[in-house]
Design a protein that fits this description.
The chain is mainly α and about 160 residues long. It is built from 4 helices and no strands. This is EF-hand domain-containing protein.
Length: about 160
């Protein structure tokens, strides 16, 4: 395999991971709201349509209260930042593994990465000549989650 092809494939893989990060940051607050509403709806359905303050409090901040309790009743900025960063990166890692994992076993292998790269390369090589020309690249040079293609080369979300 030529060096330029290897570099292009490495760039596509890296750009996909970066795109995942940007997508995660853009949708974090929306996901938090959805999660809060799901927890409140569940608490209400479990209580015949009404919830007490204690049920509301449990639904809203159970994880935060657990962090405080796990840290002796006090939580510093550094401890909270570490917990938030860990949770964010765990979510990103889950999405990346889900995207690349071809066997569905929850692990990432070199074969999984190569398989994903081949899929993306084939999708970008629209004229099937074994090379990606500049005109075949997405407009604006964006990779990752891109509305122009789905994973099969059809229009939709590229994942």
């Amino acid at each position: 395999m030529r060096t330029t092809t290897k570099l292009a494939l490495a760039f596509v893989a890296l750009a996909g991971a970066v795109g995942t990060t940007a997508y995660a940051e853009n949708n974090a607050s929306e996901k938090m709201r959805e999660g809060t509403m799901m927890r409140l709806n569940k608490a209400m359905s479990d209580s015949n349509g009404t919830i007490s303050f204690d049920q509301f409090s449990d639904a809203m901040n159970a994880r935060l209260k657990k962090l405080v309790a796990d840290n002796g009743g006090k939580l510093t900025v550094a401890q909270l930042a570490d917990a938030l960063e860990k949770a964010r990166f765990e979510q990103m890692a889950k999405r990346i593994i889900a995207r690349y994992d071809t066997k569905g076993d929850g692990t990432l292998t070199s074969d999984d990465i190569t398989s994903r790269e081949k899929k993306v390369f084939a999708m970008l090589d629209r004229n099937n000549d074994g090379k990606i020309e500049k005109s075949e690249l997405p407009k604006g040079g964006r990779f990752g989650r891109h509305r122009q293609w789905d994973g099969d080369g059809n229009e939709g979300d590229m994942q």
